[in-house]
Amino acid sequence: MVAAVVAAAVSLLAPAPALARRSGMTWGIQPAPSPQPDAVFFSVSCHSDKQCMAVGIRSTQDGHWVPLAEVSDRDRWTVASPRAAQLTDGSFRAVSCPAKSKCLAVGERGGVPVAGHWDHGSWTMRELSRPTGDGFVQLEDVACSAPNACTAVGWTQTADGQRSLAERWDGRTWRLQPTANPAGAQLTTLSGTSCVDDRFCMGVGQTSVPTYAGTGTGGLAQHWNGGSWTAQAIPMPDGNTVFMWPMAVSCLTNRFCVTVGMYTDVQGHDRILAASWDGQHWTVQDPPNPPDRSSRDSRSQLYDVSCTSMMSCVGSGRYYDTAGHERALIEMWDGTSWTIQTTPAQPHPESTLWGISCQKKGCTAVGETRTDGDDARRFTLVERSS
User: Fold this and answer.
1) What is the pLDDT of residues 210-252, one digit of tens each?
2) Any idea where the domains of the chain sit in the sequence?
3) CA 299 – CA 210 distance, rounded (Å)
4) Nearest C-alpha neighbor of 193 from the set 270, 253, 140, 128
5) How far apart are CA 363 and CA 333, in angstroms?
6) Residue 22, phi then psi, degrees to nearest 5
7) CATH 3.40.50.300 fits 39-44+53-385, yes or no
């Protein structure tokens, strides 16, 4: 394992063949089944350029919401959800595929954290532990460095507020891990995680902090060293920040990670957040906001990020345009700066890309496209770069 990590670190010194220092990518929509009445993808993981799994949620004809999963084989998507007997109210929030035809999806079912283990087309559903005395638990993300080494993160509701949560899969059982919640903080969550091996994972999220305008939320990173979690603050972009939310992270080694999300200034304007980790410190970057962003509703966020080299990371999310519609957003880091990518025309007025996964030959981003109006419908969305 150590030799493999050293080899990977050496390989990162050179650009990845397909994506290094590229300022533009060509994106197209891939057809994917969208179960009726409504269906949404929240996350995607690609083990190779030819095989991906996307997970999310779909509604049933009788008004329930149940987990959704689909797999791709050479760009052809098919439904691969758990059997009806395994489905109850709940959702899959995230997925990680560490090996061919092996994926692990996490989510919740009636406030109880669940994991779905997918092995060559067959699902095994497991309920995870909850901290003693705590209430609702939400798992937000999962990362696997191997089929027997996965970490799921999220948060749990306690009598004193929200606390970050981490659970570890060793191939046989899930075990709770103590996380690093800052003393006195009423809110601490983990929204994203990325694992290099069983000795290094990085988690990102929020925690309560004093800000320019009083008490707000700041960015928090927690890294796992094989034995414990340690917390470190992510710097605020500027002194006027009152709300900061790192939502996702992608790590290539224990000395290179990129996190993305959003932050809000004292005027109430949302802006895109990005920061990089060098093994000791976080450095805030300056990704652009879309030029056609609405001045009335300035919300813009990157929800997920995937890196294939130190000079190639791609983030996905949404923003509101001047007409007030949500638009899919993709930005790319080339080692020097972030640039907005051109996304294809959507079949419906609204669209969001919740998740992204990149390999050497391209990226797959997933989310939803929606009609507008009081009876708006939600459909799965898959975009693929070349």
Assistant:
1) 655 556 788 999 999 999 999 999 999 987 788 999 999 999 9
2) 39-44+53-385
3) 23
4) 140
5) 13
6) -100, 135
7) no
